[in-house]
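Sample entry (180 residues):
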Amino acid sequence: MRTNVTLCAWLAVAGACASSQAEQVRDARMEQIDDSTVAQTRIIEDREHARNDNIDAHHELAESKLEARGGAKQEAAKQLLDVSKERATYQSRAQARVETIGVRIRAASQKLEAVGPRATVRMHEQLQALQQEHQLLQQEVIALPDASAKSWERAHEDLDRRLSDLNSRVKKLTSEIEGA
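Predicted structure, serialized as tokens:
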């Protein structure tokens, strides 16, 4: 009897240690994924800053050429140049947002994998839906320069709304995965 109680106590301790060790491994993996996500996001931000610097440099060069040329239509050309810069800057920002969301979706996928059997079918389905929406938004950002002047504002606002919504959904799913 005493041997059975001792054996049961040892098995319970061993099971708790194994469970605790598995949770430590999972937590370490989650932290590693978070660190990788932060590093990738910084790279995206650096690329965005480089693109914006390039846009600014091109705009300044074009503006100085316009001023040197002068002419009656200079003001209209300057307005067109400013609109062009605004569009390019917005596209750079939208591209960075899409890339950042892509990094977060990949992190959610890796975390879902790390959770293993605790992950629900619903989590997998949500992840797949997020990936599909992300692909659609990537295509829209690529097509953004083709938007007409009339549809630009609407396309811009719609894209902002959808990017924000997708980002919120990715954050929500990631929280659910981390809580599993």
